Amino acid sequence: MQTKQSNFNTILISPYLQLLIFAKFCFSNRGGKKNKMFYTSKFVCAAILIYLFIGQCFAQNNFIKKLDNLTTSRRYKDAIIERDELCNKSKGLMADTTKLGKQLRKTQADYKALEEEYETLSSTSDMQLAKLNNDLKTKSKELEKKETLLKEREQKLKEMQSIIAKQDSLVNSLNNIVKSALLGFNPDELTVEMKNGKVYVSMSDKLLFKSGSADVEIKGKDALKKLAEVLNKNNDVDVLIEGHTDNVPIKTAVYKDNWDLSAARATSVVRLLTDDYKLEPKRLTASGKGEHFPVAANETAEGKAKNRRTEIILSPKLDELFKLIQNKN
After folding, report:
1. In terms of domains, do 186 and 148 share one?
2. Terminus-to-terminus CA distance in the chain, angstroms?
3. Distances (CA, A) of 183 to 170, 173, 179, 228, 301
4. CA 71 → CA 10, 62, 66, distances in Å?
């Protein structure tokens, strides 16, 4: 822009410089003599200078106008171009602004939806957490109760095991004592065995009774006496007497059938133990089983002989165990 202005000034100055040179030439005194011709020439030169000056001024004004028009036209075009560029940029910015506005509104909507979802989840989570805490407290209380109950039952179980172990020890001891007391009898007359926590003394009818009778023989009384001596020394043992027969039917004036006979034999043993050998009646129970609980087949004489028996079942008293069970319930 500065270069254009410099050239413009040079163009304007040059005509004036030319006029000054011409004026210096016209008005210079070359001969030193001033006459009418001299003044006439000066006047002509002055007129010429004025004319040249006025013409130069008009030419310069026209030139300036043309230059201004040219400069104005270029500036206008540049302004138009710049305006168009600005319009295009403005349109681009507006499009970007619109796009960003849509994105912003979408982002705001998404944010609001997420915020609502978060609040919903937070509320639901709090409710679920409270429910879980309540359930946990309830389960914790139930667990404590069950743990307490389990400890109590474990303690009861230990006590029961202790009682059972004590009873097993008692049964073992009783079994050994009874066997020792009844060593003088033959195996086909009397057997002693331990099963189900009890001591079974099985006496054959050969030892105790004659056929079809419920009266105890002398040898049988001897066996019962020795057994009673052991029982009188062990008062914590209950006694069950069971009468058994073979399957041969019986019908007499005294006994209607084998069941009647088996019950009568069991009762005779009970009376002998209580009346003669002074066992406490509360400890004894009589029961008739007839031929319904055989220990051997009735097809042979040997089998029938085994089935004709009186079993004396010795059981440790379970009072302590019963009390323990009742306390447990």
Report:
1. no
2. 117
3. 20, 16, 6, 15, 26
4. 17, 14, 8
**Encoded amino acid at 85, one letter:** E
| Adjacent-strand bridge partners of 312 | 201, 241
Query: What single string gives the DSSP state of each residue in 68-130?
Result: HHHHHHHHHHHHHHHHHHHHHHHHHHHHHHHHHHHHHHHHHHHHHHHHHHHHHHHHHHHHHHH
Phi, psi of 196, deg, nearest 5: 55, 35
Q: Mean pLDDT per 10-residue run, the chain (329 residues)?
A: 48 51 55 53 62 60 64 69 73 78 83 81 78 82 84 79 78 89 90 91 93 92 94 90 94 91 96 94 94 94 94 81 55
Classify residue 310 by burial, with Cβ atoms within 10 Å: 0-12, 13-18, 19+.
Answer: buried
Same domain, 79 and 193: no
Enter the DSSP assignment of 317: -
Which residues span the domain enclosing 145? 1-152
Geometric angle at alpha carbon 115, from 114 and 116, rounded to 5°:
90
Residue type, 52: L
Task: With CA atoms as reference, report the closest residue to 244 among 263, 269, 227.
Answer: 263
33 DSSP 8-state letter: -
